[in-house]
Amino acid sequence: MEDLTLVLRRTAKEILEKGEAQMVIGWEKGAFWYSSTSAFISKPEDTERLIWDEYCVNNLAKYLLDYRHKEGKVAVFVKGCDSRALNVLLQDKQLKREKILIIGLACPGMKDEVEARKLGRGSSIPLYKKCRECRYPNALNYDFFIGEDKVIKEIPAQDDFSEVQALESLSPDEKYNKFVANYERCLRCYACRNICPACNCRECIFDRTASGWSSKANNVSENMFFALTRALHVAGRCVGCGECERACPVNIPIMLLNKKIIQDINALFGEYEAGTDVTAKLPLGGFEFTDPEEFM
Amino acid sequence: MSVNEVTWQPKILVFACNWCTYAGADLTGLSRLQYPATVRILRVPCSGRINPQFVLKAFQKGVDAVLVAGCHPGDCHYTTGNYFTRRRFLIMRRLMEYVGLEPERLQARWISAAEAPKFQQVITEISEQIRALGPNRKLRDEEWKI
Amino acid sequence: MKRVGVFVCHCGTNIGAVVDCPQVAEKAMDFPGVVYSVDYKYMCSEPGQEMIKKAVQEHRLDRVVVASCSPRMHERTFQRCVEGAGLNSYFVEMANIREHCSWVHAGEPEKATEKAMDLVKMAVAKVVKNKPLQKATIPVTDRALVIGGGIAGIQAALDIANAGHVVDIVEKEPSIGGKMAQIDKTFPTLDCSACILTPKMVEAASHPNINLLTYSEVEKVEGFVGNFDVTIKKKARSVNMDVCTGCGLCMEKCPKKVDSEFELKMSKRRAIYTPFPQAIPNKPVIDRENCTYFNTGKCGICSKVCPAGAVDYTQEDEYLTRRYGAIVVAIGFELFDYSVIGEYGYGKYPDVITGLHFERLVNASGPTLGKIKRPSDHKEPKNVVFIKCVGSRDPAKGKSYCSKACCMYTAKHATLVREKIKDSNIYIFYMDVRTPGKGYDEFYNRTREQYGANYIRGRVSKIYQQGERLIVRGEDTLLGRPVEIEADLVVLATAMVAQPGAGQLAQKLGIGYDKDHFYTEAHPKLAPVETHTQGVYLAGACQGPKDIPESVAQASAAAAKVCGLLSKREMLTEPIVSEVNESICAGCGMCVAICPYKAIELKTISERIQGQTVERQVASVNGGLCQGCGACTVACRSAALNLKHFTDQQILAEVNALCL
Questions:
Q1: Model ipTM?
Q2: Which residues are within 8 A (CB) of A283 and not within 5 positions of it... i.e. 6 or more apart?
Q3: Residue of A156, B12, C118, C384 with fewest CB within 10 Å of its CB?
């Protein structure tokens, strides 16, 4: 990956020097050896800060929204999950493709920051769970690719819904107690929403009490309403990047809800992998006459 | 609204589309078919107008069950509204069950303007199911602990 | 704070005998916003309505709740009543305490009373959030467009024109008349098709309110009900219509012969031609693809012989845009091209023909002048086999539907053969015989009994040539034995299919079509001639296979709808439509995809963001097209879309009222 870092810097530098984009969004080294953070580079000389290592977990796609009204193009480096997220933003018409320069990467899977902190430098650090399960490690939609567009990571045959299925097998009260236990600690800081590429509304209903939907009250009932509503809003849009869980300060397993819906959409309306096809119609934005009939 | 176990009666909210189910409920009245006084019908133009979030809000505020009802597929006054309803609530019902709500508490039915006996039967059935389950505390604003 | 008045109706004993109305009225005073509450025997009666009006004045009420019967019964009554009291008609809500309460809980008066209170509470909670709504008016252009000049289009145009409205008929062929012009006789009366059609064609052409735009096509449709802006392409005829007298000399002298489409390639026409002798307008067009002058620059005979100097080789396609209040789509059907399937030797053996070929063969003005002769050797056939359901009712051929007219026209063909060829034998292979029309079954029975047609229930498995004859092998499933017939002529009742361009036209018009590309009506039972696009109506076989009487009936029905629309200068639009909060809308376009009426589109707005002017897209609802279903509101995550009169806030208020 060190070699690629050089290619990545060179590419970014060229892009800025030639004026192909006004800014490049990538990663730079963070405060610790086990953290890499997003970097926004607009001067060619600053491209030396850019890196590509196994801690570049941040999904960069959503940052593009902040610069969508800027003049000129913005270049962005994308892994598989960033690429799918970017596609969702394109599907939701939040970005103009012609204003973005996409540089694809082949992702080997990112290492778990929390484990790294625990285990210490030099030890063998496991990949994030979401990366172990990832089936699209490489960028899907790009203007050019760094390195060879070849999958360099082991790909599981299908999505892993075992945790969802384990939950499904519990009794209603057991399920509810687990749900409450998770969302009792929700602070409603909305970090999950802010980082989520599928949450791309201009103004979220939870920021607007006048919408009638959200209440400022911080109680478990409102937390659950927030959680379920957000799950419904990202239904068919969630690309499984897991950034919500990573951003959650109280470690709520948010993906348990998202994965449940992904599983059900697949089972009910046919396989749908969000962000793999920009031209696809969102599953809840349409219907088939032949959809399963449970209304009776 | 807190739950008084002694005086508790099921409170069932029915979201009914104006053209089929609401009219079906009217016909149930015209035909004098009797059913338990546990339901309150909320009229919407089309079942496609029923936001799953309304259902969440209703549970928060203390209803014991929600019935989402509209025209049969192919009979929608707006032609396709109920097909969207079907997709949305297929997902919604599974999600609610997943977080621990008893499946009886969120149901969906197609009830046409002519199906008075069906309306009567559905309401009677759900009322009995909810009576057996007891008051709902899940997701509630107050008393959300079970 | 709103001032709500609650009026609880006893409906005689209908409500009063079960629900304790005075108690409901008393309880209502506790609900937020209620300043006046009363119960009365008959709220809908004259004195009841007066009571409401008086209370509005005396207590300065600005919202009214009537607890009585179903709003489906009396909502209009009470809307008019509050309007009479000077309030906006949408400031009244009804609590249905009769159909949904007293009548269904007759044995539980206490619970019924409690429920009535809840229902009133919900209505009060909603009504305080009701906004004044006004019906808007949009102007209606008094001109109709009929697309398609077959019998359905002609009939619709005549009906509309006779009611005093101007109609344009757009027909893609050089003449109006459509499929009916090709048909010889009509069932079950056996009157001559041309004899009943041509007078209608003449009437349409000479009607002061009808303009014929033949050899023309619809290019683009914009706008909405009352105001469609339609661009029509008038293909270059190469003949100046104003000058041409229709003498026909050019057609006589034209040296270039081409297969006649009208005669299904069984005879020739010239490169300058009218499709058939009774064509309307009876002025020729030049088929530029086949014209020697257009291909080589030499010839020009038609121009030389034309006494009026009407031939104009320089003519170009013309585009004209006109505004119409309403559109009738009547583009008809096509016959399934069975050579694609290749079954029954169609396309391979010249004596295997379709029903429409047969119509031409038996027609007095057809290629054989009405003598039934088989195409291969022009001999008179003795054994004629008819095969029904060719393509129709056969999902394997992609057509699961019944083409409806074939049972009857096959019976008609059989009688015509027997009348013209006395010693002929008729064999008809069928799956079922369907004769659900006036006089149809009697006709079918005559065909069998009087005309001696042999009906064989079963499918044909194979047809092959043996000498001069065709061997037809099939099965008689009623007798359970194979059948083999030596036929001289085989006639296939091929399926009716949608016009090849049906899908494209539907997209221009914004109307729906089914898997077979037949147009979808707004409601299969209650709106069979309407489409989802207000102001666009359907007539004839473009909506599904139909025979002539059905097409004509539907055409007149569509015309009635058009007249209803065009008889007004302005039309009122329902105010219960979706509206967009542009500052919140992110322009994701989910609602655009969901709207069944194509009432939402994205528009570009510019606004100041972070000190600079930027352009962004937002949803925009066309109030003329929106029907108020509200499906879009649920798709809008940020709740930028709301349905007036059924807003999120209003429904949530009802939910809250029920529970609190």
A1: 0.96
A2: A235, A236, A265, A269, A272, B87
A3: A156
